[in-house]
Design brief:
The chain has about 80 residues and is mostly helical. The chain is built from four helices and no strands. About 60% of the residues lie in helices and about 0% in strands.
Length: about 80
């Protein structure tokens, strides 16, 4: 594996796709943090999926991720 392979958007998308189907995998990725994602959109999606999994959500879909992102955005405005 080359260093540039880690920052490829398709590599990041693969991690996110895995978590969509298996959100419980996020419990085994404590060393992978949102700021490790090169693409900022992937960073936010990863954080949202991990948060949903921590809350016990077992079915991740675009609506639940979008809803989480929307709540996080509102929270950041009021902070």
């Amino acid at each position: 594996m080359r260093a540039e392979d880690i920052t490829r958007i398709d590599s990041e998308a693969g991690v996110i796709a895995s978590l969509v189907y298996h959100p419980e995998f996020s419990f085994y990725s404590e060393n992978l943090l949102p700021n490790h994602f090169f693409n900022k959109e992937n960073r936010y999606i990863y954080a949202a999926i991990c948060n949903l999994a921590q809350r016990g959500v077992q079915h991740i879909d675009p609506y639940s991720v979008f809803g989480k992102l929307k709540v996080q955005k509102k929270g950041s405005k009021s902070a």
